[in-house]
Amino acid sequence: MASNTATMGNLPSGTSVCTTIPDILYIPELIFGGLVWILVACTYVVPHNPQAWVMFVSVFCFLLTFIWLVVFACGSHNNRGIWAAADFAYHGIAAMLYLSASVHLAKVTLDKNNPATATDSRNYKLDISAVVFSYTATLLYFVHTILSAIRWKSF
């Protein structure tokens, strides 16, 4: 009988991707990353450059996480040690990218709260939600990085 906490030295394939640690985090990463993407795309923001960086990071990480999930689900990872190292590296890079995007998004959102600039309440609330989801995605990627590092070291 398969356990929900498969041994850290094994890379899952098939449907076990959605039941093993740390790979169960793929689904929340996709959900929260998609929410950041949607919420930032819904708002009108005057400083476009920081928001463009947030959009790039959220779309890039969403697509690569989805591709990574499909690779693991299809069982296309033959050399397990290299794939475990690549999983660790990808999630570490994604965590750093999301952290930088979250800081930019929080700065833009705080600047929009300035009473001197008249902002509508709807966009401000959407940006606050995007900041919360962005930091949540950052935390998920960071936890996945730590658990992937533990799994990689067990090979």
From TrEMBL:
Is Transmembrane tagged as a keyword? yes
Q: Which GO terms describe its cellular component?
A: membrane
PROSITE patterns assigned to the protein according to its UniProt record, in alphabetical order: MARVEL (PS51225)
Q: Keywords on this record?
A: Membrane, Transmembrane, Transmembrane helix
The membrane-spanning stretches of this chain are 24-46, 52-76, 88-108, 128-150
- The residue stretches assigned to a coiled coil in this entry are none
Q: Which GO biological process entries does UniProt record here?
A: myelination
**InterPro entries attached here?**
MAL, Marvel, MARVEL-CKLF_proteins
Plastid found in the keyword field: no
Q: Which residues form the MARVEL domain?
A: 17-153
Membrane topology for this entry? Multi-pass membrane protein
Q: Where in the cell is it found?
A: Membrane
The record ties this protein, via PANTHER family, to: MAL, T CELL DIFFERENTIATION PROTEIN A, MARVEL-CONTAINING POTENTIAL LIPID RAFT-ASSOCIATED PROTEIN
Name the UniProt record assigns to this protein: MARVEL domain-containing protein
Q: What is the scientific name of the source organism?
A: Oryzias javanicus (Javanese ricefish)
